[in-house]
Amino acid sequence: MRSGPVTFANRAEEDAFWMGEALTEAARAAKVGEVPVGAVVVHNGAVVSRGCNAMVAGKDATQHAEMRVIKAAAYAVGDTRLTTATLYVTLEPCAMCAGAIVLAKVGRVVFGAWDDKAGMAGSVGDLLRHPKLNHRPEVQGGVREEECATVLKDFFRARRS
Predict the structure, then answer these.
(1) Which residue is catalytic, options 14, 25, 34, 66?
(2) Shortest CA distance to 34 belongs to which of 69, 15, 61, 6?
(3) 25 is catalytic
(4) Does this model's pTM top 0.85?
(5) What is the pLDDT of residues 88-143, one digit of tens each?
């Protein structure tokens, strides 16, 4: 983790930078045979948690990158409400992760690749911005989209061959 806050010229630059950190986590997952999804939670300009999918290692379908970093971030900041934090994740959150994001009241979600099969931030549905829920984070999709999608495509191509 970084030792202190990082500052940026604009939000697009900031999002691209932190998505790079999430991509590093995705690469770590791929090296150990996990589906390469990585995530970081940034609070007050610094990473407070980072992680990647660990479903294979943990033999647990709930060990998505988002679930792991949300839990760690709550411990790190000492609060279950992450209203001033931003979650960066390389793949659009699924229903389980979107539910956790809403319950943890994450302030902002930034993701890379869209997930046409399970994405719940606009692809299949939009749980993150559902009008009946009491919390709706700000959502930005498609940040470093091509890089994030390529990591996943390369991983699955290698598994099929």
Answers:
(1) 66
(2) 61
(3) no
(4) yes
(5) 999 999 999 999 999 999 999 999 999 999 999 999 999 999 999 999 999 999 99
